[in-house]
Amino acid sequence: MGHRAQTYVKVFEEQQVDQALHKNINFGLNEQVWAIRRVRKVDGEHVILDKDYISQRLVPGLSKEICNDSIYEYIEQELGLSISFAKKEILVEEPTAEDRELLDLEGFHNVVVVRSQVYLEDASQFQYTESRHRPDKFRFVDFARRR
């Protein structure tokens, strides 16, 4: 959208999918995932919090450095995988304590939440992301064709 953006990785760790995580992110129980928290700074303000879970089985070798740059470029260019499609849900929620800590929310009482399940060409889900946006910096554009 023509803005200067920077990414800061706040959390990068390995995690095993437990029962609570399983019901929310649709990965297999006990699957190993990369758990990542990234803050997006746009025009000097922290306006997006990305909470990513990425399959270690499908996306091996991920690092904090890659997450500071481009995860998708790594997946497609280095691993040679094809990202195919995503299922997204968009809602508005009250900010969590984590949102208030990591985002510049002064004067805002809601965040726009985009929950995405992202799949490879073979229909394997490799990523679940919850992106939490400050409402004044969020823009949704859709194109739908019937037939």
Written account of the structure:
The protein has helices at residues 19-25, 64-68, 71-78, 97-102; strands spanning 5-16, 32-42, 45-55, 83-93, 111-120, 125-133. It has 147 residues and is of the alpha+beta class. The longest helix has 8 residues, at 71-78. The model has no long low-confidence stretch (mean pLDDT 93).
**Gap between N and C termini, in Å?**
30 Å
Strand order of the largest sheet: 1-2-3-6-5-4
What is the global morphology? globular
Kindly state the number of beta strands.
6
Structural class by SSE content: alpha+beta
**SSE order in H/E notation?**
EHEEHHEHEE
Classify the helix fraction into a percent range.
10-25%
**What percent strand?**
35-45%
Poorly predicted regions: none
What is the mean pLDDT? 93
Please describe the topology of this protein.
Elements lengths: L4 E12 L2 H7 L6 E11 L2 E11 L8 H5 L2 H8 L4 E11 L3 H6 L8 E10 L4 E9 L14
The gist of it:
With 147 residues, the chain is α+β, with helices and mostly antiparallel strands.
